[in-house]
Amino acid sequence: MEIDGRAFKKMFPHLTEEMETEKSEADANSTxxxxxxxxxxxxxxxxxxxxxxxxxxxRCDNEEQAREIIDYMQKRGEIDQKYAQELRTKLRKKGVRxxxxxxxxxxxxxxxxx
Length: 114
Hints:
Elements: H1 5-11, H2 13-21, H3 36-43, H4 53-57, H5 63-75, H6 81-94, H7 107-111
């Protein structure tokens, strides 16, 4: 497909400007944040983060594991009886993935871009 310069410029004005001025906001081959500041912000995203019961449930493979997590957190006093019952009801009615996608090993490291 061939396109003339004016049509290209009309369809892609910002790209045309970047090409003509050789000024680019990002490197097309880069997957890293644009600046060191952004990298620090991303890395600190989980500083002092304490996973809650839902975070642990998202690591479960099945409903039985999720029930064990809920029971354990309730027994330790980290969640109250009312919230534990709400979680069990949601688990029974909607399943373990209703709490979120499966979080594999290294999830937080990947999310923090470390």
